[in-house]
Amino acid sequence: MEQITVIKIGGNVIDNPTALAAFVRNLVSLEGPKILIHGGGKLATRLAERMEIPVQMVEGRRITDKATLDIVTMVYAGLINKQIVAALQAAGCNALGLSGADGNIGRAHRRKPTPIDYGFVGDIDAVDSNLLKTLLEAGITPVFSAIMHDGKGNLLNCNADSVATAVALGAAAIAPTDLIFCFEKRGVLRDAEDDASVISRITAANYAALKAEGAVKGGMIPKIENALKAVEQGVRSVRIKHADDLLHEAGTTIEKE
Amino acid sequence: MEQITVIKIGGNVIDNPTALAAFVRNLVSLEGPKILIHGGGKLATRLAERMEIPVQMVEGRRITDKATLDIVTMVYAGLINKQIVAALQAAGCNALGLSGADGNIGRAHRRKPTPIDYGFVGDIDAVDSNLLKTLLEAGITPVFSAIMHDGKGNLLNCNADSVATAVALGAAAIAPTDLIFCFEKRGVLRDAEDDASVISRITAANYAALKAEGAVKGGMIPKIENALKAVEQGVRSVRIKHADDLLHEAGTTIEKE
Q: Could A73 and B95 be called an inter-chain contact, meaning their C-beta atoms sit closer than 8 Å?
């Protein structure tokens, strides 16, 4: 394989049927072996509300108790995953949906219960390159939800960005791998109000300066630092761009050097 | 591959955690390449009730409208499928869950809307032997829910017994295949009240007589006729037995001759 593209989409694409349909069309046009990771969207929250399962938040993060784990497993690994796979199939892309438990492809461990017990929330350990390779060589596009497992019978709700990074690291063991985070903005913006202020390139060499001058701030800091770690560990590039720009040279590229 | 075993479990196993745990242990002990198909159980009905989605029945059969399709996709292809896969993984069996859309492995067509429009209910056309072979050769145990797709972006709720038969026919193109329907009784009973009255063997040659004398009746008639069709079309044997007897010579065997 010459190269692999790993693409992550979030709730902003999943919750919008028009955006999702456009994304599916673009993904089918993207050449070469590819892997999709999808986040959750608002459906799980709506379903929990409708079932009167209380949402427990601690420091802005949702606690995944057993009832909530069942909901996210149903919605993410079930409904959303299968709807995306069926839509990709209809568009001519041979997609196959996966949770981490499927083929033991994604192992995670439950997050330590101290200081905050997040419940059935996991941090991903690794993605199995062998099964990824078997699937890609069969012409299949793996489609991951962020539900992983611990190998002891427990499903775990993981962060989809972290799953995407682990998938890209697994893919990088097979072929040069580019990871694309589809984002609600056009890339990392120097000025949040100005779509033309995209920072085109971030490396370990210029990151400290960009952070110091406030061009990278807030929620972008962990995103960029994780991307820098991923390229350090073997992913060829990480791009942060708008889903609409999937097929274009656009957005912010994070590279090793 | 020397032979393949295809096993179907229904709601009576899925709804009972003790029975399901025992089944998982037995399945792991069953030697050779194997494939599991699971039905639904009562959870989808309970979830629909809780979400106040009206259950529409016509002539004893449930109508699958869009809201109901979403529920069964969540519960069957999501929660139940992933829970079974995670439990099998924990027991040392490399399971991988599939809906028909995944890898385009199971195509179905929507049932004709006349005389009764069942909604998003499908009849399965075929299961892809190539992908089955790839997975089995990789040491994987495919685990199917009965949610198939039509290749046009629609998921379809199918009958799990029919899916199991289609999977067995797909497997039979790879290696001699035995299909086991796990059942709530010990097999086909001459006397429904007497577990010792199992008919051990049914073939095209003795079926007419068994039916005429009333030994095969009611809901067993279509089951046996479908099994006879499956062995006629290339499945080596079909067994109807209790889930507890999975590892034993027991139950009713339907063979070609």
A: no
Average pLDDT, chain B: 95
Q: Chain B closest CA to A175's CA: distance in Å?
A: 20
Which residues span the domain enclosing A75?
Answer: 4-184
pLDDT value at residue B237: 98
| Contacts with B102 from chain A: Cβ below 8 Å | 82, 85, 95-97
Instruction: For residues A4 and B93, give the distance between their C-alpha atoms in angstroms, rounded to a whole number.
Output: 29
Distance (Å, whole) CA A205 – CA A188:
17
Once rounded to an integer, what is the mean pLDDT over residues B183-188? 93
Residue A247 to chain B, least CA–CA distance (Å)? 23
CB contact under 8 A, A102 and B95: yes
3-state helix, strand, coil in chain A (%, to 5): 40, 25, 35
Mean pLDDT of B61-72: 91
Dihedral sign (CA A164, A112, A46, B41): positive
- pLDDT, greater one: B89 or A49: B89
Give me the CATH number covering residue B56. Answer: 3.40.1160.10
CB of A86 less than 8 A from some CB of B? yes
* pTM of this structure: 0.96
B206 touches chain A (CB under 8 A): no
What pLDDT was estimated at residue A192?
86
Inter-residue contact B147 to B157 (CB < 8 Å): yes
Would you say residue B245 lies in a domain? no
Q: For chains A and B, what is the number of CB pairs under 8 angstroms?
A: 118
Q: Which residue has the tokens 């400290």?
A: A208
Q: Give domain status of residue B138, yes or no.
A: yes
Q: Which two tokens stand for residue A10?
A: 């979030």
Q: Is A191 within a domain?
A: no
| Chain A residues within 8 A of B48 when measuring between CB atoms | none
- Mean per-residue pLDDT, A75-92: 98
Mark residue B203 as left, alpha or beta (left: phi above 0; alpha: psi -120 to 50; beta: remaining). Answer: beta
Which one of A96, A136, A147 would you mutate to disrupt binding with B, by most B Cβ within 10 Å of its Cβ?
Answer: A96
- A contacts of B154 (beta carbons < 8 Å): 86
- Cα of first residue to Cα of last residue in chain B, in angstroms, is 24
pLDDT for the residue numbered B59: 77
- pLDDT tens digits, A108-157: 999 999 888 999 999 999 999 999 999 999 999 999 999 999 999 999 99
Asked if residue B44 belongs to a domain, the reply is: yes
**Cβ contact A203:A256 at 8 Å:** yes
Q: Which amino acid type is present at position B232?
A: E
Distance to chain B for A71, nearest Cα, Å: 8
Task: State whether residue A75 sits within 8 Å of chain B by CB.
Answer: yes
Structural domains in chain B (count): 1
User: By the CB < 8 Å criterion, does B87 face chain A?
Assistant: yes
A12, A191, B210, B226, B250 from B213: Cα distances, Å = 63, 84, 5, 20, 23
Q: How large is the average pLDDT for residues B181-203?
A: 94
